[in-house]
Design brief:
There is one protein chain. By secondary structure, this protein is α+β, with helices and mostly antiparallel strands. It is built from 6 helices and 10 strands. The strands form 3 sheets. It has a 5-stranded antiparallel beta sheet, with helices on one face. A 3-stranded antiparallel beta sheet has the order 3-9-10, with no helix packed on it. Strands 1-2 form a two-stranded antiparallel sheet. Strand 9 and strand 10 form a beta hairpin.
Length: 190
């Protein structure tokens, strides 16, 4: 199968799936290496196909407007679970985490965590990894882009972060920020 045919096949597989498909699974179905799939995904993304990368695989985005706010917070790694559960219990979805590193600048990682089960999955992955959480690079200070269905929900999340002593500041994302929803899971594109 040539590259163009393979990329069309990848798009068909992603469009037909209601959940993310891993690079390894796509490689097996297309009878190529995972690295070839990574290159194909990069080409498809460059042609604006709306393909999202998650920790569970690739999926296609569908546009859905949401309210967004960036919460800058401070806490140690022991409070990660409490902070994430607080946000999702109040009706928010933690889209990402970012830190401002003194040498490397902004470091950002997508999360897309919207329920306690996803918090547990994230924490399990974190505990299995030899790497350290991003907030440890900046003395506990980090930011989360959070989406919710209403501004009132975001206000409530902010109030709860203040009560817990995590809150540092809140800001609105830029006008260029877009949110997409796929099978109930959102992805932010800034």
């Amino acid at each position: 199968m040539d590259g163009e045919t393979r990329r069309r096949r990848i798009l068909q597989l992603l469009q037909a799936s209601k959940k993310p498909i891993s690079g390894g699974e796509l490689a097996k179905r297309c009878k190529v290496s995972r690295q070839v799939i990574v290159q194909d995904i990069a080409l498809l993304r460059a042609s604006c196909q709306g393909i999202l990368s998650t920790n569970r695989g690739y999926l296609i985005a569908a546009a859905t407007p949401e309210c967004l706010r960036i919460f800058t917070v401070k806490h140690d790694s022991q409070a990660i679970e409490d902070e994430l559960n607080l946000i999702v219990d109040c009706g928010g979805r933690v889209q990402d985490i970012s830190v401002e590193h003194g040498i490397y600048g902004k470091l950002q990682a997508g999360l897309s965590i919207g329920c306690r089960r996803e918090v547990e999955e994230f924490l399990e992955a974190l505990s299995q990894s030899p790497t350290r959480p991003l907030n440890e690079l900046t003395d506990g200070i980090h930011s989360h882009l959070v989406s919710a269905s209403t501004e009132q929900t975001l206000d409530f999340i902010e109030q709860q972060l203040i009560v817990k002593g995590y809150w540092v500041k809140s800001t609105k994302p830029s006008d260029k920020t877009e949110i997409f929803s796929v099978d109930g899971r959102e992805k932010i594109v800034v």
